[in-house]
C-alpha cells in the first residue's frame, strides 16, 4: 500500500515541528520552502508529488501554479489556520498552537468561497448531544474567561454607568480576514464608522495584541483614535472589556464570536464566519448564508466540529474540552509563577526582536 504523503506550502520554519500531531494519518510530511524564487511546484515534483498525495497551504496564501496543477491532476488541497482557542501566548510570538483548522473547501475567514465551517453551518443536522456540549463549553469559556490567546490578566475596569458601552476590537490590518472579509478597512475607519452609528455612546477601543506587541500592522495613533472613541484599553484580558460592554462593533474580529458566546449584541462591518446566520446585525450580506442557526449550533460547529485539537502534554489528538482544560491549567501555572512569566517575557522579547531584524533584512 502506498504511503500517505502531505506536501506543505507557506508554513514558516518555526511551524514545522508542531504540524505532525495534527495530521497523524500522514506517513510522510514534506515542507516545500524554496530558498530562492517561487518554484514551489517544481520543488514538490522533484520530491515526488503525485496524484494520491495531499497539498496543505497555510491560510489564504496563493500558489497559483501549484493550485492549477493540483486541480488539473485531482490532487486534494487543504488550507490550514490556527484554531479559535489556540494557546497561552500569541501566535506572532511563535507560540505553539493547540488547535488548528484544516479545511478542504476554503478557509473560514474568506467569505468569497464556501469553507467547511460554512458548509457545516448550512447543512449539518445538529444532534442534542452536540448542542449540549456546545452549551457547556460556551459556559466554561465564559466562566473561566478563556479566549484565543489567553495572554493578558483580567483587570477591573470602570466605565460610565449612565452610557451604553460599545467595544471596538482592533485588528491586524494586513490580515487575510481583512483583505477578503473586510474590504481592507482600517482600524481608524472602523472607529469612525462606529462613532457615526453610536454618536452618544461610550466607545472603548482595544488594539489587537499582535499589533501592541509590534509584530503586526494596524497601529492607530492615540490622538487619532481618541477623535472617535472615548478610551483606549491595553494590556488587559479580553473579558475585562466584554463583561462590561453592551455591544461589539467589528470588521471581522474573532472577538465578535466571543461576544456572542457572552450573549452580547454584535454589529459587523465585514463578513466574519459568524455573520449572516441571524445572530448578528450585519452591514454586508452573504447570499449563501440563508439558514438561521442558534447560538449553540454556531458554537458546536465552530468549536467542536471544525477544528482539530491536541492535548497540551501528550500532543495527541483530543476533544475540545481536554484542550481547554490544558490551557486553563497552563494559564494558572503561569499566574502562580513569576519566574515562568519572566521566562515567557524574555522569550517573547527575543522572538520579537528577531522578527523585526528579519523584516528589516528582507526590506
Question: What characteristics describe this protein?
Answer:
alpha/beta; about 375 residues; single chain; seven-stranded mixed beta sheet; Rossmann fold; six-stranded parallel beta sheet
Write down how many β-strands occur, each being a DSSP E stretch of 2 or more residues. Answer: 13
The neighbouring-strand order within the major sheet is 2-1-3-4-5-12-13
Can you count the helices?
14
Helix content: 25-40%
Helix/strand order, N-terminal first = EHEHEHEEHHEHHEHHEHEHEEHEEHH
Low-confidence stretches: none
Strand content: 15-25%
CATH class division of one domain = Alpha Beta
Q: Over the alpha carbons, how many angstroms does the gyration radius reach?
A: 21 Å
CATH topology group of one domain: Rossmann fold
General description of the model:
A seven-stranded mixed beta sheet has the order 2-1-3-4-5-12-13. It is globular, with a radius of gyration of 21 Å. It has helices at residues 16-19, 40-46, 64-72, 116-123, 128-144, 176-181, 187-197, 209-212, 222-225, 238-242, 254-261, 295-305, 320-335, 338-362, and strands at residues 5-9, 28-32, 54-58, 76-82, 99-103, 165-169, 202-206, 231-232, 247-250, 265-268, 281-282, 307-310, 317-318. The chain has 363 residues and is of the alpha/beta class. The protein has a domain at 148-290: 3-Layer(aba) Sandwich (Rossmann fold), CATH 3.40.50. 37% of the residues lie in helices and 15% in strands. Strand 3, helix 3 (64-72) and strand 4 form a beta-alpha-beta unit. Helix 5 (128-144) crosses helix 12.
Amino acid at each position: 500500500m502506498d504511503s500517505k504523503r502531505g506536501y506543505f506550502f507557506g508554513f514558516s520554519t518555526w511551524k514545522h515541528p508542531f504540524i505532525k500531531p495534527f495530521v497523524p494519518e500522514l506517513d510522510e510530511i514534506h515542507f516545500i520552502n524554496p530558498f530562492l524564487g517561487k518554484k514551489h511546484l517544481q520543488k514538490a515534483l522533484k520530491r515526488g508529488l503525485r496524484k494520491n498525495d495531499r497539498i496543505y497551504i497555510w491560510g489564504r496564501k496563493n500558489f497559483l501554479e501549484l493550485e492549477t496543477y493540483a486541480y488539473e491532476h485531482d490532487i486534494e488541497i487543504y488550507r490550514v489556520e490556527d484554531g479559535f482557542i489556540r494557546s497561552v501566548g500569541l501566535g506572532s510570538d511563535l507560540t505553539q498552537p493547540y488547535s488548528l483548522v484544516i479545511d478542504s473547501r476554503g478557509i473560514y475567514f474568506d467569505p468569497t468561497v464556501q469553507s467547511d465551517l460554512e458548509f457545516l453551518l448550512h447543512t449539518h443536522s445538529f444532534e442534542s448531544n452536540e448542542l449540549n456540549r456546545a452549551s457547556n463549553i460556551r459556559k466554561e469559556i465564559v466562566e473561566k474567561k478563556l479566549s484565543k490567546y489567553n495572554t493578558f490578566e483580567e483587570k477591573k475596569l470602570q466605565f460610565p454607568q449612565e452610557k451604553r458601552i460599545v467595544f471596538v476590537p482592533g485588528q491586524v490590518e494586513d490580515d487575510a480576514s481583512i483583505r477578503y472579509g473586510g474590504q481592507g478597512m482600517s482600524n481608524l475607519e472602523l472607529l469612525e464608522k462606529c462613532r457615526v452609528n453610536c454618536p452618544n455612546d461610550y466607545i472603548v477601543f482595544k488594539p489587537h495584541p499582535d499589533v501592541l506587541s509590534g509584530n503586526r500592522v494596524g497601529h492607530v495613533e492615540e490622538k487619532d483614535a481618541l477623535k472617535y472613541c472615548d478610551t483606549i484599553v491595553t494590556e488587559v484580558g479580553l473579558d475585562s472589556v466584554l463583561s462590561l460592554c453592551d455591544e461589539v462593533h467589528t470588521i471581522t474580529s474573532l472577538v465578535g464570536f466571543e461576544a456572542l458566546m457572552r450573549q452580547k449584541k454584535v454589529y459587523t462591518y465585514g463578513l466574519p464566519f459568524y455573520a449572516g446566520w441571524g445572530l448578528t446585525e450585519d452591514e454586508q450580506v452573504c447570499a449563501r448564508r440563508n439558514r438561521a442557526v442558534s447560538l449553540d449550533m454556531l458554537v458546536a460547529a465552530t468549536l467542536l466540529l471544525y477544528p482539530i485539537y491536541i492535548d497540551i502534554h501528550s500532543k495527541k489528538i483530543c476533544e475540545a474540552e481536554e484542550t481547554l482544560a490544558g490551557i486553563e491549567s497552563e494559564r494558572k501555572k503561569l499566574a502562580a509563577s513569576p519566574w515562568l512569566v519572566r521566562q515567557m517575557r524574555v522569550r517573547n522579547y527575543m522572538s520579537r526582536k528577531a522578527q523585526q531584524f528579519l523584516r528589516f533584512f528582507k526590506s
